[in-house]
Amino acid sequence: MKERTLTNFTDLGLSAPILKALQGEGYVTPTPIQAKAIPTVMTGRDLLGIAQTGTGKTAAFALPIIHRLTANRRSAMHKGCRVLVLSPTRELATQIADSFRNYGRHVGLTVAVVFGGVGHVPQVKTLARGVDVLVATPGRLLDHLKGRSLDLSGTEIFVLDEADQMLDLGFLPSIRRIVAHLTKNRQNLFFSATMPPEIGKLAEELLRDPARVSVAPAATTVERVEQRVLHVEAGNKRNLLVELLADPDMTRTLVFTRTKRGADRVARHLVEAGINAAAIHGNKSQSQREHALASFRASKTRVLVATDIAARGIDIDQVTHVVNFELPDVPESYVHRIGRTARAGAQGIAISLCDAEERGQLRDIERLTRQTIPTEDRRSAPDAAPLHASPGARDKRNNSHGRNRGGRGGQGRGARDGWDRGFRGEQQAGGRDSQDRGTRDGQGRGARDGRDRGFRGDQQAGGRDSQDRGARDGQGRGARDGQDRSARGGQKADTHAGRSGGTHDRDRPARRRRPHRGQKHGGPRNNEPRSGHHASGGGNRADSAVVAK
Question: What is the rounded distance in angstroms from the CA atom of residue 270 to the CA atom of residue 266?
C-alpha cells in the first residue's frame, strides 16, 4: 500500500492555534522529517528521528508536543516541567526555546531555558513557579537537581536533541543521571543528525518500542552544498582566508576552527586585514556570544569565526559560505559544519583549508560521506610534496638516492649510498642480514656493508660515505676498509688498522678480554679466520657462538 504524502501542515491534524502560528511564520509545507515524525509523536509513541542538520528537526518535535499539551491542559507542578528538552549548547537551547514560544504563541505556553554562564538565582525563581516546557543544557540542569530547585518526577515528555553531539561532548553520563530523576511513564523522543553505535545503545536503554524515522542516510552531506578542498601550508592559511574573503559573494561567512584560541587569532587577523569579523566560543561570556550572533544575523558582522559549538542547530539564514579553517578531528562534525549553509532550500558553498597534517582527517571525511571532494593545490612551495603522499611523509629531497643535505653522489655529511639523515634503517645493535655482532669482511661490531653502528643517519663529524676525516682508500689514522672513526662496537679510539699491511687491531691494554673458546690466554685474538671470514673488529663474547665447533 502506497504511503500517503503529506504536502501541507493542515494535513497533519495540528490544532488551529498552531496552524495560525505557522501561517504567521510563513510555513506551509512540512519537511520530510516533519511529515513523518509529527503524526507519530502526536500519538504518544516514542520516536528515534534521524535527519541531516538543517531539515527542520526542531519543528518536528515542537509542533506535536505543543499539540499534546494543549489537548490536555493542566498546570505544571511546583518546581517542575511537563516537557524537558536537553540541548548540547547554550545557543541551540535558546533557539529551541524561541521556537516553542513562536509556535505556541496562541496557546499560552510557559517556556523557560536553563544553561550556564548566566545568573543562577533568576533561573531558580522561574522554575519555582513551574513551566510547561523547559529547555536546558545538561550541566546547569544537574546543578538545579542537586540544589533541589527542580523536580522532574512529573515530566511527561523527554526530548534529547542532537544526541550524537551529546556523545561527542561527553554528556552521556550526565544524561543517564538526569534520566534517573524522570518518571518511567513518559514519552521519549531522540533526534540526531547521525547515529553512532553508542547513541544506538542509549536509545535501546531508554526508548520503548520506538518508531524510527529516517529521511537520509547517516552522515549524508547536504546535497545543495558545493564543496571543495584547498591544499595549503598551515602557515599560509590566514593569508589564503583573507584572499578568499576578497570575493564579494562571501557576504555572510562562517569560519570554523578547532580551538578557542585559534578562533580568536583568526578573528584578529581578519580585523587587522580590514574585514569585519567576530569570534564565538565557549570562553566568551553569554552576552558576548549573543551579541556576536545577533550582529552576524543582522549582517553587521560579515564573518563569524567559531568552534564547533555553532555547528549544530544554529539557524542563521542566508549563510553563503562555510570555511573550515581547520578540518575537524571528528569526521561527523564536518557534516554539521557545512550544514550551516544551504538551509531552507538555498544553495551554499563549503571550502576546507587542508594542510599536510590534516590529510588523514580529509580521508576520514570522504570515507564517512561516501564521496570524493574536489581539491585544488594552493601551496606556495614549488617543490612541495605530492598531494597523494601520506600525512607526515618525508620530503623526497631528503630521501633521494645518493643525495641529501650536504652531499652529492652519496658523499657529504650525513649522506651515504642514498641513506638520509633520518635513517635509522634496519640496523640495530649488532647488525642483521646474517652478520653477527662480532665481525664481517673486515668490518667491526655493529658494522654492515660499510655502515657501522656509530653511524646515525647524519654520521658523526668526520664520517663521509665510508671515508673518514683524513682517510682515503683505507689509509690514515682511524680508517679501516670503509669504516670511519665514528665506529663503535669493539673498536676504541686507539685502534689502528692497515699498518704494515696487517689486518689485526691492538685493543687497549686496560681492558682485558676473555679468550675465545679453544684459545689460550695471551694468544692472538683478532687475526684468526672465522667461518671463512677475516676478523678485524676485536673479539667479544658473542663471537664464541660463531667460531665454536
Answer: 6
Q: Rounded to a whole number, what is the largest CA-CA distance in the chain? A: 112
Q: Where in 137-177 does DSSP place strands (E)?
A: 157-161
CA dihedral over 392, 395, 398, 402, signed as positive or negative: positive
> What is the pLDDT at residue 191?
87
Rounded distance between C-alpha atoms, residue 160 and residue 172, angstroms: 11
CA angle 186–189–190, rounded 5-degree value = 140
Dig out the grid coordinates for 148 from the structure. 533541589
Tell me whether strands 411-412 and 407-408 are parallel, antiparallel or unpaired: antiparallel
- Using an 8 Å Cβ cutoff, are 155 and 125 in contact? no
pTM metric for this prediction? 0.59
- Give the angle subtended at the CA of 316 by the CAs of 113 and 238, to the nearest 5°: 115
User: How do the domains of the chain map onto residue ranges?
Assistant: 9-214, 225-377, 402-549
Do residues 352 and 373 touch, judged by C-beta distance below 8 A? yes
For 16-39, how does the pLDDT look when each residue is reduced to its tens digit (9 = 90+)?
Answer: 999 999 999 888 899 889 999 999
pLDDT tens per residue, range 90-130: 888 999 999 999 999 999 899 999 998 888 999 999 999 99
Among 152, 153, 154, 172, smallest CA distance to 162 is for: 172
Residue 52 β-bridge partners: none
Q: CA 341 to CA 334: how far, in whole Å?
A: 12
Helix (H), strand (E) at residue 235: none
pLDDT given for residue 107 in this prediction = 92
DSSP 198-212: HHHHHHHHH-SS-EE
CA-based Rg of the chain, rounded to a whole angstrom?
A: 36
Pairing state of beta strands 303-306 and 277-280?
parallel
Give the C-alpha separation, 167 to 176, whole Å.
Answer: 12
Contact 479, 485 (CB under 8 A): yes
CATH number of 225-377: 3.40.50.300
Note whether 358 and 329 are within 8 A (CB): no
Strands of 433-507 (E only): list them: 463-464, 467-468
How far apart, in whole angstroms, are the C-alpha atoms of residue 389 and residue 397? 14
| Pairing outcome for strands 411-412 and 321-324 | unpaired
Least confident of 53-57, 426-430, 509-513: 426-430
* Cβ atoms of 255 and 310 closer than 8 Å: no
Pick the CATH number of 9-214 from 3.90.1150.10, 3.30.1540.10, 3.40.50.300, 2.40.128.120: 3.40.50.300
Q: Residue 40 in contact with residue 12, Cβ under 8 Å?
A: no
Cell 581578519 belongs to which residue?
270
- The 8 Å CB, 24+ separation contacts for 476-483 are 480/442, 480/444, 480/536, 481/441, 481/442, 481/443, 481/536, 482/442, 482/443, 482/450, 483/443, 483/444, 483/447, 483/450, 483/452
C-beta neighbour count of 47 within 10 angstroms:
24
Identical fold, 9-214 and 225-377: yes
Residue 111, H or E segment: strand 111-114
